[in-house]
Structures are given as C-alpha cells and as structure tokens.
Write a sequence for this structure.
C-alpha cells in the first residue's frame, strides 16, 4: 500500500513497483473515476467532498480486500479512521515529500481540486494535517525529495524485501 501527499509519486512509483514485482497495480482514485464516470475534480465540484470521501472509503475497502499487488491510495484516503484501521494488516509505504518538491511536481494541475489557488499554501496545510496520520499507519517511510522515480522505486522494493 502506498500513501502520501499529492505529488509524492504514489501512482508513478506504484506502477513501477508493480511492474518490477510482476503483480497488479490498483490506483484507488482511478477506480473511483471509472465507477463514477467522472474525474475526481468533477466529483468534488458536482457531488462535493463528503460524497467523494464516501466513495473513496469504499474503493479502498474493495482494493484492500481484493488486493493481489500494489495499491496506491489517494492522498486523503488516510483521513478515514476506518481506512486507517483497515491498513493495520498491510505493509504501508509512506512516500514522504516536502512542500517544495510536491509543489514543483503538481504545479498548477487542475485535476487536484484541493490544491486550487495557492498550491504551496494548500500543500502546507494538507501536510500539516495529514503527516501525523501518514506516520501513524506507515510501516515503511521512503523519502522522495530530489530523487528520480527509479531511485524511489528501488528504495521501496528494497524496504519491502527487508
């Protein structure tokens, strides 16, 4: 299970880790989008954040129940107490990123509704709120700042194998 803030590299690293391990890859945000027939950004606008979070909690439950490979959780999935408790029985890798690196990676990406406006300010706020939650569920922490995807992928693989 990969967790982390927007811009940490969960989807990108998750795909690469799954490829290297020759296992399936699930991105819970992609699952939600597929089932809803709309983007996460559109869901926030049209259905609201509470409905998105409800769908996210359900998508995470299904992904964890059916998981046979690598699962990347949306950055806010750990806000759910139920999701955090479900993660207790899994190896959870926190891809830790600082505001500076996360901001440069996400830029002004309109597909990230919680970051619209002041990207750095919103990332700072999200990291302040979520870091204790990431720490509380992580079995392994891998720093991503200033590192290429292949380096982070190798670190995740080494940490999981240890």
């Amino acid at each position: 299970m990969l967790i982390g803030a927007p811009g940490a590299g969960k989807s990108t690293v998750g795909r690469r880790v799954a490829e290297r391990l020759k296992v399936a890859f699930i991105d819970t945000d992609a699952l939600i989008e597929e089932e809803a027939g709309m983007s996460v950004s559109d869901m926030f606008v049209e259905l609201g954040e509470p409905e998105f979070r409800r769908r996210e909690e359900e998508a995470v439950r299904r992904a964890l129940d059916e998981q046979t490979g690598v699962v990347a959780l949306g950055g806010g999935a750990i806000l759910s107490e139920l999701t955090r408790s479900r993660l207790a029985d899994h190896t959870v890798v926190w891809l830790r990123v600082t505001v500076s690196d996360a901001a440069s990676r996400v830029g002004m990406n309109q597909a990230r509704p919680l970051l619209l406006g002041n990207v750095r300010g919103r990332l700072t706020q999200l990291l302040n709120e979520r870091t204790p939650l990431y720490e509380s569920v992580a079995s392994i922490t891998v720093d991503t700042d200033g590192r290429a995807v292949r380096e982070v992928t190798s670190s995740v693989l080494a940490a999981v194998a240890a």
